[in-house]
Amino acid sequence: MLGLPPLLGAINTMWYALPLIVVISLVYSATRHEAMQPILSHSARLATMIVLFMVVIMAVLAFLSWRL
What is the pTM assigned to this prediction? Predict the structure, then answer.
């Protein structure tokens, strides 16, 4: 068991993913649409898909490394 401080340090680095996800989804959506409403709705859907993909990959990696 590593303890609580290393775990909290790893959690803090995950906060860098939030602005990256927002920027990627906004820029990608802005290249597809011109009006603001479609950009924001597509961006919200894309950000949700990115977060869900990251959670699934994290769960798979956690499962694979469970007994290491």
Answer: 0.77
